[in-house]
Design a protein that fits this description.
By secondary structure, this protein is of the alpha/beta class. The protein has helices spanning about 15-25, 30-40, 60-70, 80-90, 115-130, 140-150, 160-165, 170-190, 205-210, 220-230, 230-250, and strands at about 10-15, 45-50, 75, 95, 135-140, 155-160, 190-195, 215-220. It is globular and about 50 Å long. Bound molecules: pyridoxine-5'-phosphate.
Length: about 250
């Protein structure tokens, strides 16, 4: 489905947790590469994986194999030196720079682009020079968006975790409003906007209706639904849901 400005609303499917299950037995199955293939065939525009510093799920070899197997790989990564080296060696189409703490269960907040600007600036240039699109995973906050733009990042991914985890309707509404406002600012600055984290089959609809957002990156909810209905059907259901919400939003506009 097309976004308001004519661009397509894309779905990136994160296959980390296929590797989580595999690593439980340190075997070969289930295979994140096969899952990536299936997700692409079911309508995913890109396959996402996070090479964490502790290698708890995705391994270096998975990244290499995914790069060869899928048409568009978005590698989530910290800015640690050895991870940057792997990214430059493998050359995915895109990297998404995220903050990383060893103890966390999943990425907990956005990158502090303001604080890290001296490290991020040269890194963004390096990736661009290598033909890799750098994206910054940030909270929906104006100072962070402006800093991302100043550093020359062409893409940002807005962290939807606070929206997804909001308990009351009021808090959810407030977080949704922050995401809408952030998307408008980022679009006015000429940035390409993605969003993700904690999105599922119930809460994705409202995010898919924000016209400036062009891509949603979703992992956990799709993989857990795949356990019941299979990967192909789980991805198709999410693709359909996003498309339907887009149509509704465009008709209402
Ligand atoms: N986007 C980014 C930058 C992430 O770090 C993650 C989690 O790996 C996701 C999207 C997907 O989040 P979830 O697995 O909760 O859908």
């Amino acid at each position: 489905m097309r976004a308001q400005d004519g661009r397509v609303m894309r779905l990136g499917v994160n296959v980390d947790h296929i590797a989580t299950i595999r690593q439980a037995r340190r075997g070969r199955h289930p295979d994140p590469i096969e899952a990536g293939h299936v997700a692409e065939r079911a309508g995913a525009s890109s396959i996402v994986c996070h090479l964490r510093e502790d290698r708890r799920h995705i391994q270096d070899e998975d990244v290499r194999k995914l790069r060869a197997a899928v048409s568009r790989l978005n590698l989530e990564m910290s800015i640690a030196r050895d991870i940057v080296a792997v990214a430059l060696e493998v050359g995915p189409q895109q990297v998404t720079l995220v903050p990383e703490r060893r103890q966390e269960l999943t990425t907990e907040g956005g990158l502090d682009v303001v604080k890290l600007r001296r490290r991020l600036g040269p890194l963004i240039e390096r990736f661009r020079g290598a033909g890799i699109i750098p994206s910054l995973f940030i909270n929906p906050v104006a100072t962070q968006i402006r800093a991302a733009r100043q550093l020359g990042a062409p893409v940002i991914e807005l962290h939807t975790g606070r929206y997804a985890e909001a308990i009351s309707a009021t808090a959810r509404g407030r977080e949704l409003a922050a995401l809408r406002k952030a998307s408008q600012l980022a679009a006015a600055l000429g940035l390409t906007i993605a969003a993700g984290h904690g999105l599922d089959y119930e809460n994705t609809g409202a995010i898919a209706q924000i016209p400036e957002i062009e891509e949603l990156n979703i992992g956990f909810s799709i993989i857990t639904r795949a356990l019941a209905v299979g990967m192909d059907e789980a991805v198709r259901q999410m693709v359909r849901l996003i498309a339907e919400q887009r149509v509704d939003a465009l008709q209402a506009a």
